[in-house]
Structures are given as C-alpha cells and as structure tokens.
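We modelled the chain as a single entity of 464 amino acids. Its sequence is:
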Amino acid sequence: MDDNVELKRFTTGQFLNFALGFFGLQFAWQMRIILSGPVTENLGADPFIYGLIWLAGPFTGMIVQPLIGALSDRTRTVFGRRRPYLFLGALISAFALWIFPNSGLIAEKIGAHYNLHLPEVTGLLIAAVMIWIIDACINVAQGPYRALVPDVVPPQQHSVANSYMSLSIGLGSVVAAGVAPFLKWAFDYQMPIPAQFIMAALAFVLAMTWTCITIKEHSTKKTKVQETEEPEEKYSFFKSLKDFFALSPEVSKICLMQFFTWIGTMCLLINFTQYAIHTVFQIPDLSDVSELAKEMFENKTLIATNFSSVCFAVFNLVCFLVAIPIGFLSAKYGNKKVHIISVLSMALAYLGMGLTHNHKAVILLMALSGIGWASICALPFAMLSQYIKAGTEGSVMGIFNIFIAGPQVLVCTLVAWFINNCSFRTPEGINYHWEYAFFVGAVSLIIAAVIAASVQEKLLASNR
C-alpha cells in the first residue's frame, strides 16, 4: 500500500461487504472442525491418530501463512496483492472438501479399478492428505485476508474491522453448524456428511469470489524511478522475525498471550465433537470395532453429531451477537480490558463442561464460551495492528499466526496423547476422558488473561 494514500472511513455496509469472504472461509473451516472427527474415526483413527491428523492446521499455518503473507506483500498483479491468494486458496480447498468425506469410498474404487488389495488404512491416508490440503489452502487465504485490514481500513477503525470479521466468523459458523440439525428438526431429513462438505465448498468459493470482485485494493505498482531507487529485497524469514519483535516490547507479550489463548481455544475446537459423542452421549470409541458394532451406534452417533453442531451453532451465534459490541466496547475502554474479561468467561465455561455432562448445561456453557471466541477472533489482531508498519502487513500477520499454529501442535500431540492414555472400559466397549481437554484449556486461558494484563496498549491518538 502507498504510504501517501489516505484511507477513507468505512461505513457499516462496507464493513459487512468486506467481511463476507471470511464468512465463506469460516463456513468451510467450521464444517472441517465439526465433522472431521466422525469421518476419521469411522476410518480407524483413535484419539492420538486423530490428533496427529489435526497437525495439518498448525504445520501449514506456521509454514504457509508467514510465507504467503510475505509473498502477498511483494506481489504485483493486475488483480492486486491479496486477491490472487484469496481466490486460489478457496478454489483448491473446495476441491479437497469434496474429496475428504468420500476418502474411504475413493480408496475402495481405486482398489477395485486396478484390482489392488489396498490396506484398510488407505482411506484414512487419503482423508489425512485432504485435511492437509484443506488447512493449507485456508491458510493461503486467511493470512492475506487479515492483511487487508491495515491495507484498506484506517487505523482508528481496525478494532471495528476485526470485530466485523469476528461477526462473519460467528455467522459463518452458525450457518455451517445449523443447517443439518435444522433440516432434521424441520423436515426430518438427515443431511449426509458428504453433502454438508459440498455445501461448505460452494460457500467458500462463492463468498471469496464476491470479496475479490468488490474489495478494491490500493495500487501497489511501483514507478520506474521507485524500482531503480528501491530494489526489491529478497525475503528472509529470520530478518522478518527479527523486525517483527523489534516493532515494540509489547509485541512479545501479545504473542505470548496469543500462544496460551490458542492452547485453550484448540482444546475446544479439536475435541468438542468427540467430547459430545463419547462423553456427553457416552458412545464407546468406534475406531477399532466391527462394521456391525458401528451400525449399532450409527443412529446415536448421528444424534450426537447433530448435538455437537447445535452447540457449535450456539457458540458461534453468541460470537456473532457480541462481535460488534465487543468492537465498540474495546474502542471505548481498551482492547486489553475487554479481552481479559472475555477470555476469563471462556475459562469458566470450560471448567463447567469438564464437570457436567448435562445436555442443556453444555449448550449454555458453549454459549458462554462464545463471548471469549468473539474476542479471540478480533482483539489480539487489533492489539497487534497498532504496531504494524505500512507495507509489512502480510509478513506481520503471517508471523503472528505462528503463535496461533504453534499451540495447536501441543494440543494435537501432548493433549491427544494424554486423552489416548486416559481410557476406561464400559459395558459397550472402551471410551476416553475427552472432558480432560477442557481442564487443560481452562488453565491455559487463565494464563493468557494474566499475560494480557501486563500489556501496555498503544494510545490510539499516537496513530493519528
């Protein structure tokens, strides 16, 4: 972005239009969150293998987002800096979303077509590859999308802009999670899992295409004089990392806060559907049982999965409802204060979910968690954006994503290993203490709130 361009204040309509692409991105991401557990468990994944498959998100996030963010800062095309990544990320991800729930069927057809005796794990391997592609492409789109905020929105409205993105995250998740339970409730029609993934693929592509068409990026084309005087520097991750932490001493605190915040967040996002199926509905683990046993629990598993979808819909509906108020409250009282209260409310909800299996109580506690989720989706980015220098937006957001992706590795490995070693036997078969993930998450969120309290926020006036 040209430093001399004076950014015009966004209207409410412009904010809503700006956030539409993120609606589609979150629609796809939410479907992957809710349904990846049942799909992979049916293909033979136990809690630890399931956690390892989830490593797709953090690894691609740590590698893809910093790289794509830096590339998007330097990209010069007739389509802009960020938009090529938004569109291509959505398009490739949509293809993988279609394949993922059909992985077992595809493995069978490949074996039959070539007369091969493929091992049973082949379907799980195909599913794992599709998960990695989905997560990588979502990261390809997400980093440049976040970088659009400082690109096109004036500094005084960064908190509000991120809150509108939080709003779109909430709304996209509500719709994604709510369609199947609504169809079952209203028309007694159980939407098949593959159909839900096709719906997510279409939502991602169409919403992101609309954003690419309607959001105007400022010209980034250099003149011949600028190209002579300012030769393009080669990208160096370590130099970018050094420059990132040199922005301000507060940046390190924000990153540490984000690290513990996302340990807590991923304890819910990764484990909730399995918690709903195996802890709330007390269905035994189905990763290593006969097809007959799977058929016995098929209907109850669908009911439990729909319950998880309802809970995620409530969780994200609250995020949707409080996203804009959180933006305005943070503009009035400061990002830090609002974020601390929101994160602590989420920690309290986690403790409740770890201690109760009552269906109504779990739904209410997920609603309470939604307040923290709305803040997590907006305010850390608003806190960081105060220190971003023009022209480095993509690099900064990409590096910041490491402190979102890194904690996920711990949840996908250590927490998954912990749950995998906390099994117990029931009359129906082996089960696991999935609720233990919420105790780990609650502690992490409390630590994040303590760190947030030490952050000295930059005064908005200094940005003017």
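As a brief sanity check on the tokenised model: Residues 216 and 229 are 27 Å apart (CA to CA). The chain has one domain: 12-216+245-463.
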